[in-house]
Amino acid sequence: MTERTLAVISAGLSQPSSTRLLADKLATATVTRLADEGVSTTVLTYELRDYAQDIMNNMLTGFANPRLEEMIEAVTAADGLIAVTPIFTTSYSGLFKSFFDVIDNRSLTDQPVLIGATAGTPRHSLALDYALRPMFTYLHSVVVPTSVFAASEDWGSGDGGRVDSRVQTLPARIERAAGELSALVARSDRSSRVRDPFELPADFNPAGMFPPR
Amino acid sequence: MQFGIFTVGDLTTDPTTGQTPTEHARIKAMLTIAQKVEEVGLDVFATGEHHNPPFVPSSPTTMLGYIAAKTERIILSTATTLITTSDPVKIAEDFAMLQHIADGRVDLTLGRGNTGPVYPWFGQDIRQGIPLALENYALLRRLWREDFVDWEGQFRTPLQGFQSTPRPLDGVAPFVWHGSIRSPEIAEQAAYYGDGFFSNHIFWPASHTAKMVKYYRNRFEHYGHGTAAQAMVGLGGQVFMSKNSQDAKRQFRPYFDNAPVYGNGPSMEEFTSQTPLTVGSPQEVIDRTLGFRDYVGDYQRQLWLMDHAGLPLKTVLEQLDLLGEEVVPVLRKEFAKNRPADVPDGPTHESLVFAASRAPVAAASAGRNDLDTSAAIAPHRRATGAAFGLAGAGTTGAQR
């Protein structure tokens, strides 16, 4: 059976957390889709709250301690990433951003990413498209077209017996996003790549661009 | 093996008194510290180079020239000399001049500098940091090794028939270390030329330093300068000592908690476990330092950061007494144990002159004028393992 790894990052703070709940639902849907394709998926889920001190220490000292380094390695080497944050003050939470601030800005290049967010009101839903999506674009990740926003009221919406079939409920949006992510994860060879931290550019010349004759 | 200290030259408020030294007082303190390095029997004093407050040392060779006159034995070095934003012609001149003034007791560590605005202040672009370091050093080498240089590069005004003066003392360029925290390009550059590699080591986990040094050693061998074990490695370190371990922790904690680099971040205990910082008794410092060899191999130079984070001069001088009296004598003895005979000692002017005199044919036949020093050294190393003054070379007091 083909094997893939899927990293899940939740920046939710409370226990239980609706952010984590959304992250888990996205992960489950993605794993199910992959299983349908004959792909067995290992899910690695991280609550950023558990790493909050480590992330801030990394911010201040410039290096990740062994615990955080191990987590960063796992996340950046995964075949896909589900990243979910609560919306605070119209944007991703500071903790969520801090994590992406301390990792190497080349380390998520080409990684398939599904973004999600939660908030108390649907009026913050565009934060996904004006804050999270540009950040991952900057990191050269491949962000799937469907992002999933869950406002408090979405947790009370069903997927069957819709009054109006044009309204995409939360379960439907999760399914659509999971389909998009799973297609990219299935094709990824990211987790089996050998990464050489000392790899030099192909045209590197230790004597400079104008080497001595 | 060589032992010494390196200073950043920071002007930091002492968190225990609220006092901030004046620039003048700080500069004078650095001069006092350098002379103390010789007095307590260490081998190297190295100063940083900065062009922005709160750092005072913008003109390292001026400072080192004074120290040269006040000392007789120690090697005067830098940590680091900015190869990106300084004109390589001026570096060639300044350090050749210093070589003559100090009778050869000079080497330097090249670094790129990580303060963004300094680059544009000197007409450069930080995104070109690596290409600048590569090209400027390629020119610097030629200026020291060729009497007349024709040059054209990407960054600097071309040169036609330029001669850098004075010529290096005894026709031998100062030894060069390349400093880098995380750029494999710089480790590669050091290996390519057979120069030294200085790992800052402090502020970062030892596992990272171990990987960088291993990479440099392997590439040094790849380029034919000797075996990986013969590559020239220098390490930084950071210690604070007291006879009693608990006293050291108590005294240093306020400085740690407020230090510019890691203050308000991890606890001192976390930081000492994750990086080479050691706060404790002289014996703890000895044990920790001897442990460096386990992950970088037998190396040539150990420098400590001592005068930073607002530590008063009196405390720094006491620290140096402890280093000189209790730590370094033991380290010299212990590092010498089981050290393979073909691993070179730390470089001195005398060892470079000796190596050059032993291999003129090799240098001429190497066919690459950019590799002359290492070409001179490499065959000699393989033949006798005696390069850099292990046997027979004129030794200075620094080679003890």
Automatic annotation (TrEMBL), chain A:
InterPro entries: CE1759_FMN_reduct (IPR023932), Flavoprotein-like_sf (IPR029039), FMN_Rdtase-like_dom (IPR005025), NAD(P)H-dep_FMN_reductase (IPR051814). Residues 6-155 form the NADPH-dependent FMN reductase-like domain. It holds the Pfam family FMN_red. Keywords: Flavoprotein, FMN, Oxidoreductase. One of its GO terms (molecular function) is oxidoreductase activity. This is NADPH-dependent FMN reductase. It comes from Cryobacterium zongtaii.
TrEMBL record, chain B:
It comes from the Bacteria. GO terms for cellular component: cytosol. Gene3D superfamilies: Luciferase-like domain (3.20.20.30). The keyword Oxidoreductase applies. Transmembrane segments: none annotated. It holds the Pfam family Bac_luciferase. Keywords: Monooxygenase, Oxidoreductase. The keyword Oxidoreductase applies. InterPro entries: Bact_Lucif_Oxidored (IPR050766), LLM_FMN-dep_put (IPR023934), Luciferase-like_dom (IPR011251), Luciferase-like_sf (IPR036661). Residues 1-294 form the Luciferase-like domain. GO terms for molecular function: monooxygenase activity; oxidoreductase activity, acting on paired donors, with incorporation or reduction of molecular oxygen. This is 5,10-methylene tetrahydromethanopterin reductase.
